[in-house]
């Protein structure tokens, strides 16, 4: 069939009602959002954002309502999609923006692709990776992996990906989303080492839309976290309280989930795997901790400062 590109869509979308099919690769994936309210009678009030790209650039794609339970888990980072009968809308201006792995990629920010059950009913097809042809010109997924030794030089809010061996994982904790609201964020703290520093990565992991991974983070698992943000305390002692926190587009993977993921080709990931082969498992096991209360950032040593 005749295909269109994201670049052509941006130029011609106002003058068209029906659009040619699109062939795109998923580069980023947000957590699933529930927007139900008691007074609105929607069966499945869900929404998820994806950033998709072809040879011309990158654009947001929104999956709506009952398409979310049907497709959300199948649309992984790296998945190639053929989209037919989709709608084009003006972009929502307040959504979060992931940091692209490829800084040269053109971003089409004025419009977004909308996938719905009706008006029009979108047809989605997943193209198996082995049948993807090089002449389609689809970009590869690129990452921004950092090592622990590089972390201290990075600014606050910098976006990065990390891999490490888990040495500590805390219990799941809850924080209120709003002061007097009834909604909570669920999160847990973890430490991971990668052999490049005496210090571990300190990770604040909020529950993403991957409960099967979030609940099974254990010491001695290989943990990959993408689209993490650097949080640096710029007040008293900057070095002591640098940690990484998840963003809306973060994905978390543990041992057993790495096979076939695009990051397995990354040089820093390969270097980490080489380092783990030089480690004695029994020695590392002795240093691991699980559960308990983890106050972080640490309160000051005396009450006057506190």
Automatic annotation (TrEMBL):
Pfam families: RADX
Gene3D superfamilies hit by this protein: Nucleic acid-binding proteins
SUPFAM superfamilies xref list: Nucleic acid-binding proteins (SSF50249)
GO MF annotation: an example: single-stranded DNA binding
Domain of life: Eukaryota
UniProt xrefs under InterPro entries: NA-bd_OB-fold (IPR012340), RADX (IPR040893)
Protein name: RADX protein
Organism: Sula dactylatra (Masked booby)
Gene that specifies this protein: Radx
